[in-house]
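Entry 0007
Protein: Protein O-mannosyl-transferase 1
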Amino acid sequence: MLGFLKNPVVITAEINMNLMALIVMGLISRLWGLSYPRAVVFDEVYYGQFVSLYMKRIFFVDDSGPPFGHMLLALGGYLGGFDGNFLWNRIGAEYSMNVPVWSLRLLPALAGALCVPLAYQILVELRFSHCAALGAALLILLENSLITQSRFMLLESILIFFILLAVLSYLKFYNLQRHSSFSGSWWFWLLLTGVACSCAVGVKYMGLFTYMLLLAVAGLHFWHMIGDQNLSNVSLMCHFLARGLALIIIPVAIYLSFFYVHLTLLYRSGPHDQIMTSAFQASLEGGLARITQGQPLEVAYGSQITLRNVLGKPIQCWLHSHKNTYPIRYENGRGSSHQQQVTCYPFKDVNNWWIVKDPGMQQLVVSNPPRPVRHGHIVQLVHGITTRYLNTHDVAAPLSPHSQEVSCYIDYNISMPAQNLWRVEIVNRESDTDVWKTILSEVRFVHVNTSAVLKASGFIGASLPEWGYRQLEVVGEKMSKGYHQSMVWNVEEHRYGKSQEQKEREVELHSPTQMDISKNLSFMAKFTELQWKILTLKNEDTEHKYSSSALDWITMDTNIAYWLHPTSGAQIHLLGNVATWTSANVAALVYMCLSLWYLIRRRRKIYDIPEDAWQLWVSAGGICVGGWAVNYLPFFLMEKTLFLYHYLPALAFQILLIPIVLQHLSDHLCRSLLLKSMFSALIIAWFSSVYLVYCTFSPVTYGEPSLSVTELKDLRWKDSWNILIRKQ
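Output (structure tokens):
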């Protein structure tokens, strides 16, 4: 019974020593001296702020992309015990002892190191030789720009890792398709493709380019499957559903999960709250939530409210009035109504409070039980402090003469009657009987007499002059001019008024209220709002010293100085390996010219290479040239500040193309043994030059050793490169 114990248990395993050596070399090149310099390097000043906010659980919005990349950087800080206490205010600032520099830079460095074996595996799966695959991996290993970008708290190396992982996973899945459909490994690589794609998109939206490329390739492969008569309709449907599940549904679910974790972690109010809606702000701990917690949900006649404009950009503001009146005549000679000013004020103030009044009753308090205001009801809005009614009439607004002036009505006993009736229209209503709700309802106020809509026009035009205290203009806009978010308002602060006397009411308006009603948003509502803000929020793009155009990248006419030692000549630059970049451009040009030549010849029924070699050539180009194109060409359409590091994902694909072209030339154009030997010698000489350039620029890749002024000048191979040289 125990006979099996007589012999030892033996486990055999195949180890690819090429792969293991590449992993070790990749780790050494990216992890060596990772804590140096112990100072803020270039965009670490940007991403470090978000890491600190994660550590403190404070909400933020980054318009550069989704949160997954930021969370990975924050994970490094969490593993290193970072408490978030560091002022990220300038490049070159020395890190304090509480900042775990090595831990914060670890994940980008690991991602950069793993790109080396991924390159090797991709070429193996494309059916190229191990020699070509090794060449691709070594080119990635010795690419100075990829090393620099992966050694700091930046996102590009993580993005490239997930992009290459997605490509490799799909190639492995596709190669298993021929003989192991629906096997465990088949499912694993298909699912990993979807996961890697969603992670790439979750790091930066640039990952979407490669995701779309792989979807197109998968669609093309499935189209070929449809023509396979050996596959039944049921089998085709199963293949279609499997791809839909793994490449669309699961990536979308994972993408949503990134935001779920992001919003779960960041539950505290922070500096970016003001660009979010009142409902979103109220869902965060602190900030607006402290003010609005427990407010009455339903707006009733007699309610005391503040009205926030929904647009909220460039700044948030609230409907406001004060005792000052419009000047009798403006600077341009036009006259006004001389009524009380109504503005949009970007700060919380007691003069932001208004009372919702029933036009048929005189009372300014909430009855018992409260009578809620519904969509379509007519109301009057009474300014809480001055008790004057919100009014508009056929008088030109001060800054927008084609719109109506909005004021609080003063009876001057002249032929200008009050026009202070407003119809409440709930824009996001579910039915025409919806109740006007605090924070949740987005409403328009339509003037009954003129059909003008209450609008904050100061977002588009200038602020009022000195007589208006530089506050934003509010106008009555004709509905015929279309819909705009500046016409929409929501109740932010709300209480049920109890005091009919003015003096008592003023005291009431200054005091907080606490009632027990929750206004929590669902995850999908918060996700939708946050996603929309990320996509539409635009910081003012200013010209940066190291910004560049997409045309500059191909020939590397630009560089970026990442860090300069405060006393010595040691410095770090984002500079590529000139030999590799030039070779990549030549390889792309050769590939396109050869492909065009082959296509023309094949059209004439002349086949220069075997069919399997042609299919290999086309499939490799679809991945490598396609990957380069989709990650590069879109930048010509982008209106944003661009930097050299935006080119790195495209460069990674272009580098993979170099050994593909070299092997093709060796196999199919070098037909004699002599030519093959000469070509091999040229490749060795060329690769030696790649290594020599890598060594030459290593001091500005790793930041050490410090170079003399003469040595720095010798590194300025192009006049357009900005190598920093201290004045003696």
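Curator remark: The CA atoms of residues 140 and 205 lie 23 Å apart. The longest strand covers residues 318-325.
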